[in-house]
Amino acid sequence: GRRATVAFSTHWQDDAARRDFTINALYAHPQTLAISDWFDGLADLDLRRVRFIGDARERIREDHLRILRYYRFQARFGAMLDGEAEAACADMAPMLKGLSRERVAMELLTLLALPSPFDTVARMFERGVLPVVLPEVDAAGIAALGALLAAEADCDIAPAAIRRLAALLPADPRLADQVAARLRLSTAQRKHLVRLARRLAGGEQARALAYAEGRAVATDLLLLARRNPVDIGPDPLPMFPLKGGQVVARGVGAGPEVARVLQAVEARWIAEQFPGEERVAQLLDEALRG
Fold it and tell me: What is the rounded distance in angstroms from the CA atom of residue 102 to the CA atom of residue 269?
């Protein structure tokens, strides 16, 4: 995927010629701050155009990851499309299969974490680039990403790459786990993605969801369901006030029965939206009578 040839030069222009994009080949003199721009990078910045230096296909042959880098830079800086770059990336997309999974994952997650990646991701899908690295994504996933981005904007929620990746993928925990393994995501990222793949059935109480799943997962699940996480509230999540010793003190023998009673009381405590200790004591009485 990457065929780097080391060659030393004392000329900055030679160094600039080996860069990927014109906007990455701008040099400032350390004393005068004068800008050296050999490939019209400043003009491309003004036009918000991402353009390869020289022959786009040659730059991609040097490092296939530049296909994904092109789209990441396009999502961040671009407005005007460069036809040569787009054609080269689409035609050479199969070369992405030879890249290390970690490099692919890094570029994808960085792209997804940008403020407004939807148009770029949709174009990657349409041009056949995204299916090479994420074949699980279909048109429904692209639409789901758009809906999620709208929900994030409406709720003023910061971007999160794993949440957006979850939107792209079908709601299938096993498939999410396979994708996470293939991309070599961290253990925490993998668990988070799998939990988001379960989605919400509808009607879940926001704070109860946060209590069960944690605030971060609950926030993402609500956004994926087009619901506002503000319903979780700013207050710390409650802690279940009943302990096993209190159940034993009421005459229940230590063992599975104590766990059964605790689970029964906790389920009702959650359903009643976390009442205080007086109500918990009543719930315990009812569980023991039952």
Answer: 44
